[in-house]
Design a protein that fits this description.
94 residues, SH3 type barrels, elongated, single chain
Length: 94
């Protein structure tokens, strides 16, 4: 198993900033991969017909976003948590 590490030895003034920048880039890529505007206001319908409106966010603050579990990834709007695979429709509202 490959264990990730924080890039504190990254050249430049702030290795922690580099890690935050990389995490933000990973989140943007995840948003493109799953076709949903994570971090933005949306109107979303789950496969069971439930309608949600609000800011679409990752359900938990992840250190790293694993490539292999994208459809099992949990998202949330407010206090409602659901998986990517449970989304029937998602429209950006800003």
């Amino acid at each position: 198993m490959n264990q990730e590490g924080l890039p504190f030895d990254t050249p430049g003034p702030d290795g922690l900033k580099a890690w935050y920048d990389q995490r933000d880039a990973d989140r943007r890529q995840l948003s493109r991969d799953v076709g949903m505007p994570i971090g933005h206001p949306v109107e979303l319908e789950l496969s069971d017909g439930t309608l949600l409106t609000g800011k679409l966010e990752l359900a938990e603050s992840l250190l790293w976003i694993e490539q292999g579990r994208r459809l099992d990834l949990e998202l949330r709007i407010g206090r409602c948590v659901f998986r990517v695979r449970d989304v029937a429709r998602c429209v950006r509202k800003d």
